[in-house]
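As a warm-up, study this chain.
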Amino acid sequence: MKSRPREISVKSGKMEFIRKNSSHNQWRDFYRTVLLLSWPRFVLVVLGIYFGLNVIFALAYLNGEDSIAEMPRGSFSSAFFFSVQTLSTVGFGHLHPITTYGHVVTTIEILVGMFFTAVVTGLIFVRFSRPAANLLFSEPLVICPFDGRPSLQFRVANIQHQPMVEAEFRLMMVRKEDIQEEEGVRRFYTLKLEYSHLIMFPSALTIRHIIDEQSPLYGITEEQLSKSLTRFFTSIVCIDTVTQSSVQSQMDYSWQDVRFDHRFVEIYVEHEDGTLEVDYGRIHETEPVAENRR
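Now compare it with the structure written out below.
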């Protein structure tokens, strides 16, 4: 009897892919699996393994009658707390092994405890030390004039309290097109940006793709975007000045997120002393393009 093909859900931004007949065994990559857990789930997994190990060794101590000095016969609680002391290599000295069986079990548990402590310590260190990009992307994309030419725009803001440097920006489009051999083929396009690199990225900025004759979006309409199921993917890689580590963040948009003839509202106010005030609460806000500004 054949087993049912296993389905695996893989999420990338707003998109979800259902993999069928995927032979990858996630348990072989347990390290990555644990790192991908949220903090509450990570704590629950660690506590579950910790208590599970102590229960197993407590039962092992109960199985060897009178193998531990001064442990009441058949007392699971005494065996469990002795296991806790042994697993952590604390050992208060009141209970101790007195038979070969007891010495073997405690030796095995001490070794398991050393490995468990080392693995958990390493995982906690990696989770704390991983830098996060902490970037805020605008919810919509807009298509509006810029310097007399139509442009596709989105906003991104650095929400860390320190500037990031050497920021690299990329924007890609994928849509369905009919080709000579078949219909509805997904085609990928790298969209050229007005600027794709910034030495310093302290606050918020607008990323633009100019829609000229060389752009795959030239002459595009809302109906065409909808019909071709167009999606946009953006990626930003920069260096965190605190950890001196490279960080990355990404965002994806569907054709429904594109607002035609809208522009982002102004979020910068320059004060007399030269400081710039940025309103992060309006990152996502847009407004219709006035006719006299076209």
